[in-house]
Amino acid sequence: MSIDAIMRRWIDILARLWLGGQERRRARHSIRVTRESGEWVLEDARRAQRTKSATGPGGATLPDDVVRAAQGSFVILELPGSEIVSRSLSVPAQARDLLPGIVRNQIERLFPWRANQAVHGFNVVSSDASTLNVRVLLTSRAALDDACKQLGALGLRVDRVVAGNGGTDAAPEITLWSRLADATDASLSRVRSAVGGLMAVAVCLTVVVNVWAFMTAASADSESDEVGSRLAALQRQIRGSSSRESIAALAPPERAHALKETSPVAVVVVEALSRALPETSYLTELNMDGSTLRIVGLAGDAPSLIAPLEQSGHLKDVHFFAPTTRNADGARFVFHIEARVEPHVRIDGE
User: Fold this and answer.
1) What is the pLDDT of residues 14-49, one digit of tens each?
2) Whole-number pLDDT of residue 252
3) Which run of H or E residues covers position 337?
4) How far is CA 20 from CA 13, 39, 161, 178, 190, in A?
5) What is d(CA 101, CA 95) in angstroms, rounded to the nearest whole number?
């Protein structure tokens, strides 16, 4: 089957389910209509009310409150036995599941009407191991349409037509016609259109929600990337970038400012060394490569130089980068010290 055929079948099933649900809902409150001596009689079991139609100048009428109650109720028309023709039919017991089709095929043989000119119902009267005795009741569609037209003039809409049981409660009530079972393509078209419209709206809403969710997710990803970039920039600003490559990539004014902030001042470093080193020691070499400082000199006690240099506030990671040896006269030691310079433009205490 094609997709179109499958969709049409589903819509038809949903439409019938909708109508069936409406019928069951309205059937909770039913009004039974019968005809006595040419007058229509309405019996409302829930309200314990029995109302007869009155004949006025404009024809038969019903009280307004009765009509309003009936319009919201399930209206059952009960036909008297005088308007119904009854026949008996025997079929094999094995054909119980096929009774609706068998009865319909036998209508023209049992009754003087064609199948489309009458409405019918049936029930199994008795059965044994081999035979089913079926009672078939039928009335002409013309008589049914005339009765429904008269009730329609009173403001009533017939939902089901049943055959009277002759006042015998034990006899089962047989349905001859119901609006749901007789629903044609014309009567179902409006419901089909409504169901199809609802399905289309549901599909459109699903597409819109999916597109909105996709766009929201994409926007959130973009914002997350932007926030990540900003955080990275702030982290770079906080840490500072002293590498030559990053400084060389800056614009000239920014590069000059970065070099000024990150490069140690040689004069300040020399002044800090002169204050930190004792008078018994002196330098023979001083080499400063970026933030790395290397000094070579003579001192009477080389290990004691480490602490004053670190406490100067300008040098970090002070350590010997070569072995300490005695000089030629043996009175002093040759030291080789390396440290990392912390940029400062002023000496502490000035």
Assistant:
1) 776 776 676 666 667 888 899 888 788 888 877 777
2) 76
3) strand 333-341
4) 10, 31, 16, 11, 15
5) 10
Coil vs helix vs strand at 75: strand
Could you give the CA distance from residue 108 to residue 71 in angstroms, rounded to a whole number? 36
User: Could you tell me the two tokens for 184?
Assistant: 């044609």
Question: Which residue, chain included where needed, has tokens 């609006």?
Answer: 179
Supply the pLDDT for residue 170: 54
Residue whose tokens read 């017991």: 93
DSSP 8-state code for residue 264? P
Give SS3 for 157.
coil
| CATH 3.30.420 fits domain 3-192 | yes
Domain 264-341 belongs to what topology? Gyrase A; domain 2 (3.30.1360)
The rounded distance, in Å, linking the Cα atoms of 344 and 350 is 12
Per this entry, what is the length of the chain? 350
CB neighbours of residue 156 within 10 Å: 23
Backbone angles phi, psi at 38, to 5 degrees: 80, 0
Domain positions in the chain are 3-192, 264-341
Distance, CA of 350 to CA of 341 (rounded, Å): 19
Q: Which residues of the chain have pLDDT under 70?
A: 1, 16, 19-20, 22-27, 55-59, 165-171, 182-192, 233, 235-248, 255-265, 343-350
Per-residue pLDDT tens digits for 197-215:
787 888 889 999 998 988 8
Nearest CA to 339 out of 282, 296, 281, 278 is that of 296
Cα separation of 257 and 249, whole Å? 13
Q: What confidence tens digit (pLDDT) does each residue in 72-108 have?
A: 788 899 998 888 999 999 999 998 889 988 998 898 8
pTM, 2 dp: 0.48
